[in-house]
Amino acid sequence: MSLIPSPEQKFVQKSNVFGTQIKDELVMVCLDRDLYFSLDEIGVRIWRILEKPHGLREIADKMTREYDVDIAAATENVAALLRDLLTNGLILPAPRKYLGEVNRT
User: Fold this and answer.
1) pLDDT average, residue stretch 71-98
2) Model-level pTM?
3) Measured between alpha carbons, how far is 89 from 73 in angstroms, rounded to an integer?
4) Which of 48, 79, 86, 91 is 20 to 30 A away from residue 5, measured at CA?
5) Out of 3.30.420.10, 3.40.50.1470, 3.30.930.10, 3.90.930.60, which CATH number does the structure's domain 10-97 have?
6) Domain limits of the chain?
7) How does residue 27 score in pLDDT terms, banded at 50, 70 and 90?
8) Looking at residue 90, what DSSP letter applies?
9) Is 32 helix (H, G, I), strand (E, B) or coil?
10) What is the mean pLDDT of the segment spanning 16-29?
11) In Å, how far from its chain's centre is CA 65?
12) Beta strands in the chain, from DSSP E residues, in sequence order
């Protein structure tokens, strides 16, 4: 079972995750879980994108524009990273207002 409910679901960084850039990597600590985590250059780029709510599809699209990768590979790789970040408590689902749903009255 996937932890990513849909390509439209948006995620955002947790506020209690702090990191330090060391060359091309980011070493992070999650204070409420005593967890250390590191990201490579592309992971760092995705982490920066997640400063604001973004979904799997949006991030994968950005990766295809910024790196030499096709949409299928980008989607698979971004989904894997989002699952890791979510499982380790480093990101959260964004509030529903970011889903872009139309409010029907």
Assistant:
1) 90
2) 0.83
3) 24
4) 48
5) 3.90.930.60
6) 10-97
7) very high
8) S
9) coil
10) 90
11) 17
12) 10-13, 17-22, 25-30, 35-39, 54-55, 91-93
